[in-house]
Amino acid sequence: MQQRNMEEKDLAACARLFARVFSADPWNEPWDDELALRRLVHFHDSSGFVGVVAQRQEVVGFALGNLEPFCTGTLFYLREMCINTAQQSKGVGTQLYHALQRELESRHVRAVYLATYRGIPAASFYEGRGFHRSDNMAFYAKRLATSPLATD
Ligand SMILES: CC(C)(COP(=O)(O)OP(=O)(O)OC[C@H]1O[C@@H](n2cnc3c(N)ncnc32)[C@H](O)[C@@H]1OP(=O)(O)O)[C@@H](O)C(=O)NCCC(=O)NCCS
């Protein structure tokens, strides 16, 4: 298994993987390849993009997000991470996360943050990798009549 930085040429394969993983349990979201590619391209083309992929013959997983300036230094907002469903729970996500963290440390990033649901398997994955759920911060969302939110 190889971990390396994500390149633009990886986006299509990552989008196909993303659409498959997040269409399945426990997410069951209505992704197709085109919608997934649009989302990943958005992050890729945004300021401060950092992404890593895990690869055998093909891409098995990826993690990506964007660096953000903050008053205490640079933060990284981890926006998406997924491992091929058939390859989950075999340590690939842990290796991939460590590759991402090494990359962020080399860029002197102060902290990584992310939003996800409580109680899903991914939450215990992040907690096992040293993340803690904030008692002080909350994630707010408001549904607007014209724009259904995928967050509730
Ligand atoms: C969450 C995810 C990235 C973890 O990667 P992974 O390769 O399955 O995880 P690993 O095998 O490296 O680590 C397993 C650890 O995470 C936990 N875990 C997280 N998700 C798990 C899952 N779906 N199945 C089994 N264990 C899971 C286990 O408790 C285990 O903890 P431990 O090492 O302390 O015993 C991956 O399962 C995944 O892509 N899930 C679907 C998409 C998703 O939820 N992404 C995150 C959205 S915020």
TrEMBL record:
Where does the N-acetyltransferase domain start and stop, copy by copy?
Answer: 1-152
Pfam families (alphabetical): Acetyltransf_1
Signal sequence, renumbered to the chain = none
Coiled-coil residue windows: none
Q: Name the SUPFAM superfamilies on file.
A: Acyl-CoA N-acyltransferases (Nat)
Fetch the PROSITE patterns from UniProt: GNAT (PS51186)
**What protein is this chain from?**
N-acetyltransferase domain-containing protein
The organism is Litchfieldella qijiaojingensis
